[in-house]
Each structure stands twice: as C-alpha cells, then as structure tokens.
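Q: What would this chain look like folded?
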Amino acid sequence: MAERYLVVDRLKLSHEGLFNADEIHALISSFFYEKGYDWYEKMNQAINTPSGRQIRMTLEPWKNITDYYKLIVSIKINIADLKDVEIKSNQTTLKTGQGTLRLIFDGYVLSDRKHKWSRKPLYWFMSIIFEKYFFRQHYARAEKWLKHDVEELHQKIKTYLNSFTHAYGR
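A: My prediction, written as structure tokens:
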C-alpha cells in the first residue's frame, strides 16, 4: 500500500471583508498550472441563502515528481455570507464580493504512487527499508519542494487579499 505522509498540516488563512472569489480561484489554478501540477477539483458546492452565498470547495492538485513519489496539495475553501457589492473608487465602479473566506492547506507526499511495491509482503518490507535508508534524500527533497510550493501559494493569496483590501477597503 502506498504511504501518504502529511507534510503541511492545516495551514490556515482567514479573511473577512472585500474579495473576489473568482479571482482567488483563478489565482490558485494559475499557480498550480505554472508549477506543472495536474488539477483535481474534488468538491464544489454553492448554496444561496438569505444571508448570502455559501461556497465550499476542495481542490487536490497533484504532481508526479519521480516514478516513486507524488506531491498532493489539499485546499479546502469555505466562503460564507458572500454578497455582491459595488465600490466607487476614483470615478469608477467596481463590482466585487464581501464575505468571510477561510482556506485550509494540507500537503502530502505519496510514496509508491504506482503501487508496485505493495503487492507482496516482501516487496512492502523492502520498500520500507529502502525509504528509511536509501531514499531519505529523495524524500527530503520532495518534502522541501512541497513545503515551498504551499508556502508560496499561501503568501500569494495573502498578498492578493491585502492589496485588495488596501486598494478598495473601507
């Protein structure tokens, strides 16, 4: 069985105020496209309520880095009470959204992504030994790569939200 190692554990980002949900989704998808990840949208739900739209998404982009290791980033997006608002700034009107945004990032390194080493007990045991003693640097490189990508995306989203707030905030 392939082992799934948790590297980034529940890195959170919250924002309450003005933001554009479509631009955040585009920012995330373009980031992973530029980094060479394959896109997988596990869940996408939207509900209209009297207090505003409620949106829940789970994104799981992944990337094969070797024949043995695979990187998986899980992003849970919860948007609560999203309402459309218009902002007047310098004689122009901007249509955007106002609500509460919560993001949770998890990062995993998946070993034996093709399940070649988990078919027989002896192979499984050998894979554990190889990972522990021979592939340690490969795993460390995969872990470092994953942490860097998740932290870079986290910082890009934070920068976007801060610039949006400073440019159009109240």
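The mean pLDDT is 89.
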